[in-house]
C-alpha cells in the first residue's frame, strides 16, 4: 500500500524567511509520481509540481524549489523568501503508474498548514 | 477556460436525504475521480472512472454511487446522507496517460453539511 507522511501539521514563519515542508513516502512500485498541491484559504487545490521516479534532479521555479531523494523516500518543498500570499495548506501526493484498469489514483499526505506572518 | 466545474458549492442536507454532486470537465480527460477532504486526513479517494461506462471504488466508497455516461460528466450520488458524510468533496480529472499527462486538475470543491 502507498503512504505519504507530512509530519509537520503547522508551520508559522515571518515574511522573508525560508521554509521547508517535508514529505516522506512509501511505495512498492518502481515507477511512480510525486506531486505538490497548494490549497489557499479560498479552498481550491492548485497543482504546483510533478516529479517521476526516474528523475531525481532537483527543480527550482522562482521562489519554489523541490528536493527529491529516492534514497530517503523524500520529496521536500522549500519556499525562499516567503510571502504572506504563500499562506496555505500544502499537500504532498503520490501516484502509481497509470494502469488501464485502475487509472492513476493519488494518495495524499495530511497536509501542512503554512502561515506566513507580516 | 472552465476546466473542472463542480456544483453546488455549498449544500446542507438532513440525515436520510439523497442528493447528487455534479462534476463536469471540458478538457476531454479520460480519468475522473472524487475525493473527500476531512480535517487532519488529507484527501481520500471515493470513486474513480477510467472512461465512459467504467467506474470503480476507491478507498472510502460506502454510501456513495457514481456513473459515467459521458466523458464530460461524473456525478456523485449520496444515497441516504449521514452526518459522517459532512465533508468537502473534490472532483478531479486528468488524461489517462502514464507519461506526461497524468496531472490531476481539481474542481473548486463542494462543502456539504449533513445535520
Give a short overview.
The complex is a heterodimer of chains A (118) and B (115). Chain A is an all-beta fold.
Account of the protein in words:
- The complex is a heterodimer of chains A (118) and B (115).
- Chain A has strands at 3-5, 10-14, 19-21, 24-26, 32-39, 46-52, 59-61, 64-69, 74-79, 88-96, 106-108, 112-117.
- By secondary structure, chain A is mainly β.
- In chain A, the strands form three sheets. In chain A, strands 2, 5, 6, 10, 11 and 12 form a six-stranded mixed beta sheet that branches. A four-stranded antiparallel beta sheet of chain A has the order 3-9-8-7, with no helix packed on it. In chain A, strands 1-4 form a two-stranded antiparallel sheet.
- The radius of gyration of chain A is 14 Å and the shape is globular.
- In chain B, a hairpin with a 5-residue loop joins strand 4 and strand 5 (43-51).
- Chain B is mainly beta and 115 residues long.
- Chain B is built from no helices and eleven strands.
Describe this protein with a few key phrases.
heterodimer; A: 118 residues; mainly beta; B: 115 residues; seven-stranded mixed beta sheet; four-stranded antiparallel beta sheet
SSE arrangement:
The complex is a heterodimer of chains A (118) and B (115).
Chain A (H helix, E strand, L loop, with lengths): L2 E3 L4 E5 L4 E3 L2 E3 L5 E8 L6 E7 L6 E3 L2 E6 L4 E6 L8 E9 L9 E3 L3 E6 L1
Chain B lengths: L3 E4 L2 E4 L5 E7 L5 E7 L5 E9 L2 E4 L6 E3 L9 E3 L8 E8 L10 E2 L3 E5 L1
Parallel strand pairs in B: 2-11
Antiparallel strand pairs in B: 1-3, 3-8, 4-5, 4-9, 5-6, 7-8, 9-10, 9-11
Beta-strand fraction estimate of chain B: over 45%
Oligomer: heterodimer
Question: What are the low-pLDDT stretches of chain B, counting only 5+ consecutive residues below 50?
Answer: none
Beta-strand segment tally of chain A? 12
**Uncertain residue segments of chain A:** none
Question: What proportion of the residues of chain A is helical, as a percent range?
Answer: under 10%
Amino acid at each position: 500500500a502507498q503512504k505519504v507522511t507530512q509530519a509537520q501539521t503547522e508551520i508559522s514563519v515571518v515574511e522573508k524567511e525560508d521554509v521547508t515542508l517535508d514529505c516522506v513516502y512509501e511505495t512498492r512500485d518502481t515507477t511512480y509520481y510525486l506531486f505538490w498541491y497548494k490549497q489557499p484559504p479560498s479552498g481550491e487545490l492548485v497543482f504546483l509540481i510533478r516529479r517521476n521516479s526516474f528523475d531525481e534532479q532537483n527543480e527550482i521555479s522562482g521562489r519554489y524549489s523541490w528536493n527529491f531523494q529516492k534514497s530517503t523516500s523524500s520529496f521536500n518543498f522549500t519556499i525562499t523568501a516567503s510571502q504572506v500570499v504563500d499562506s496555505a495548506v500544502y499537500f504532498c501526493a503520490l501516484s502509481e503508474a497509470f494502469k488501464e484498469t485502475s487509472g492513476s489514483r493519488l494518495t495524499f499526505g495530511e497536509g501542512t498548514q503554512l502561515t506566513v506572518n507580516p | 477556460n472552465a476546466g473542472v466545474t463542480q456544483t453546488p458549492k455549498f449544500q446542507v442536507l438532513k440525515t436520510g436525504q439523497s442528493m447528487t454532486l455534479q462534476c463536469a470537465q471540458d478538457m476531454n480527460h479520460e480519468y475522473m475521480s472524487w475525493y473527500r477532504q476531512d480535517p487532519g486526513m488529507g484527501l481520500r479517494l471515493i470513486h474513480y472512472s477510467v472512461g465512459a461506462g467504467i467506474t470503480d471504488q476507491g478507498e472510502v466508497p460506502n454510501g456513495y454511487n457514481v456513473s459515467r455516461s459521458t466523458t464530460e460528466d461524473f456525478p456523485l450520488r449520496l444515497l441516504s446522507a449521514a452526518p459522517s458524510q459532512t465533508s468537502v468533496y473534490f472532483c478531479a480529472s486528468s488524461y489517462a496517460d502514464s507519461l506526461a499527462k497524468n496531472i490531476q486538475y481539481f474542481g473548486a470543491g463542494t462543502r456539504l453539511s449533513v445535520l
